[in-house]
Amino acid sequence: MKKLALALSVVIAAISSPAIAEGNAEAGKTKIIVCSACHGMDGNSMIDMYPKLAGQHATYLQKQLHDFRSAAQTGGKDGRMDPIMSGMAMPLSDQDILDISAYFSSQAIQVAEAKDVPELGTKLYKGGDVSRGITACMACHGPDGKGAELAGFPTLAGQHASYIKIQLTKFREVGRHNDLNGMMQDVAKKLNDSDIDALSKYLSTLK
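C-alpha cells predicted for Cytochrome c:
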C-alpha cells in the first residue's frame, strides 16, 4: 500500500510537471519497418509472445525503449535486458524513440473476442486478495485496463494473454526489474501459476 500511495504522488507530480516531449507519428511510420516483423505494421502483433503496441501510452513505450537501450549500453546492469529488443533499441536516437512511440500509440488495438473468462482473473483484477496481501490490479491499471499514462502504468486491455503471462512470471522471478519502485515485483511474487494464467486471460479480453 505504501508503494501504491507513492505511485499516486507520482501522478500528482506529473500533472504539475512541464509538458513532455512529443514525437511525430508520421515520421515514426517510416521508422518501424524492422519493428513490424514482430509487432505488426499497425502494432497488432500476430505472434502472441510479442506484445501489441497499438494504443499503448506513448510515454510508456518511450520508457521501455530507453530501458532496452540502456541495458544494451551497460551490459544489462541498468534498464531492461532482452536478447532481441536491447539490440533493436541500441541504435535508436532519442528522436527515433519519440517518433516510434508516437506512431504505435496512435494505432488502434485489436482485441480478441472473449471466450471463457476465468472468474479468478476477474476477482483478482477487480478486488485482489486481501488474505494474501494482493492489491487489486485495477488500482493502478484502471477498471477498464487502460492504465494511467501520467503515472507510468501501461494499458493492458486486449494484450496477448501469453505475453502478459510471460511478463508477470518475469516480475515474480525478478527476471524483469524496471518497474516503478519494484511495485510489480511485489505484486507478482504473491501470485501463483493459476493466478497468473487467470489474470492474463482476463486482461486479453478487456476492450
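Residues 24 and 109 are 19 Å apart (CA to CA).
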